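Write out the 3D structure for:
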Amino acid sequence: MRSLYVVTHPEATHHVEGVVGGWHDSLLTPADVRAAVLIARALRARIPVGAEVEVFSSDLQRTRRTADEVTHLFGVEAVLDRRLREKSYGEAGGRPQAWLDERFVPPPAVGERMDHDEGVPGAETKAVWARRVYAAMDEILRSPCEHQIIVTHGGSLTCVVAAWIRMPIESAGYASFQAPSGSITTLREDDFFHNRQVVSLGDTRHLHSAQD
């Protein structure tokens, strides 16, 4: 049985400042460093003691900081992979969200969506974004490790899940798997049929339980 735990990093400074994230290298807010600790503890509770664990993370600071808490509890090193980054918004990264909103061209309801130009210089198309995340997932899944943790971003979660269920890239133009910041999505593949499940999507119970 293979289990993947896909973590979306907790709230970052770009959320609070109202600026565009993407490849803008924002930090976790001080309060959400605590959320990263809770994520790590929740994962430690779900994975058997002594089991082999691999951790993969986007190389941006907000995901690396989250992964640090996870690797500390599991006693492993994270593999940093820039292919697990959020979608690049090009020149919009780090600018006020309003700057992007004024220029953004949404994809058409029908027609070409994966190679759609959003009107922002330097921004990735959804096709480019999906291909790099799919490539990262192909490499991750070549490992026989039964427990793997992936620390990524809210937007890139869609590409991770789409790759997991083997959705063809050309069909991913309409895909959107929503998960809040600081969530854990659990994916599982059985050893007999090799069916791939989305066991839970965007679970945040570990964050709320600390407030009770």
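Strands lie at 2-8, 53-57, 78-80, 147-152, 184-189, 196-203.
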